[in-house]
Amino acid sequence: MTMDHAGFAQSIFKAQPFSMFLGAELTSAGPDSAEIRVANRPEIQQQHGFVHGGVLSYLADNALTFAGGLALGGDALTAEYKINYVRPAVGESVVARAKATVTTRRQAVCQCSVYVVSEQGEERLVAVAQGTIVRAGKQED
Hints:
The chain has one domain (5-135): Roll (Thiol Ester Dehydrase, Chain A). The relative contact order is 0.20. The protein is of the alpha+beta class. Helix content is 25%, strand content 40%. It has a 6-stranded antiparallel β-sheet with strand order 1-2-4-5-6-3.
């Protein structure tokens, strides 16, 4: 049976209260990839008017987990991730795109790029992240 990646991912995404609170959207999901977007607004900015690093980190974490979970074929959790902020995020929205680069039976190593999007639709890299995603549920040690 072929998995409906987008439908599966949307059902999980819509069950995440924090994602709904932020107004985030899962804009695409494939067999080993995901894209999540958040519109910029004052409530998610820090004191200098940039999108808060915590929001960028949320986007990377969640996109990494969706990409890894889809590559693993089901529900998943983040085991670890690292993020590098490369410039302040100032623009209309922020989008994270993640892809699983290595997948084994138990885990997926994923990479993510986070971009700020201008009013004209131009994208500028603001953060990069890498993480290890593991299958959720009962696991043997």
